[in-house]
Amino acid sequence: MEVLPNDHVGRHVFFLGTFDRPVFECLRLFAGNTPVLWDIGANIGYMSIEFLNLLPNAHVLAIEPLPDIFAILEQNLRRISANRALCLNCAVSDRSGTARMQRVSNNSGGSFISIDGDEITTVSGDTLLDMAPAPTVIKIDVEGHEAQVLQGLQSVLSNPALRAVVFEHHTQTTMAEDVRKPLHDAGFKIFRIWKNAFTWALCDAERQNGRAGYYPTADFAAVRNPAVPGIKVLR
């Protein structure tokens, strides 16, 4: 795959061959027998590429708002499987329209919706059901725009085919109510991903303490049923 070696995500992939492995493994294990990933905030496509590579019957909807990063994403997924991937150059939000995105130097994945920056197109997530199969798993990495994304995905979240939503949410204590509520209302239980140098596990997001030997990440998994082979839950 093509990467930007001086960019945060590209640097990890270039030197280590991987990025946010616990997030990818969580998506893979919850994906089900007919896996469909909606990769919201796809960047250059690492998660989508791994998903398509390791799950031969998988389909992906990959969404990235920055045009130059989107061009790399689209090229990368076309090389892997053009007929199993759809790329959209937009941002998912609670409404369709336009917004502005502030770039972060040497970290395109850290770009965030703001009052300044590049103008981008936004779409309400539920409208994507007209373009792609309903997801079995969703990855959300949108740098603080999680609540708006979830608000626009109400029909998608209520579909029982959706098994997990794995998302980044920077919180040290209590999860924001506007992020927690739409997931709980749709029947999901929220776990935080804890990890160490060798492995990872899920821990109830309401708990402030995990287990000795693990530390909390900024990544969470909202799941209907955590009892899935390969998933470890800290008690």
- Number of helical segments? 7
Largest sheet: spatial strand order: 3-2-1-8-9-12-10-11-13
Radius of gyration: 17 Å
Number of domains: 1
Task: Estimate the global geometry from the Cα principal axes.
Answer: globular
Task: Report the top-level CATH class.
Answer: Alpha Beta
Under CATH, the topology can be stated as: Rossmann fold
Strand fraction equals 25-35%
Name the structural class: alpha/beta
Main sheet makeup:
9 strands, mixed
CATH superfamily: Vaccinia Virus protein VP39
CATH architecture: 3-Layer(aba) Sandwich
Mean of all residue-level pLDDT scores: 92
Folded structure, characterized:
The protein is of the alpha/beta class. It has one domain (8-190): Rossmann fold (3-Layer(aba) Sandwich). Helices cover 27% and strands 28% of the residues. The protein is built from 7 helices and 13 strands. It has helices at residues 8-16, 21-30, 46-54, 67-81, 146-151, 154-158, 177-185, and strands at 36-40, 59-63, 85-88, 91-93, 97-102, 112-114, 118-124, 137-140, 164-168, 189-195, 200-204, 215-223, 233-234. A 9-stranded mixed sheet has the order 3-2-1-8-9-12-10-11-13. Helix 4 (67-81) links the parallel strand 2 (59-63) and strand 3. The radius of gyration is 17 Å and the shape is globular. The model has no long low-confidence stretch (mean pLDDT 92).
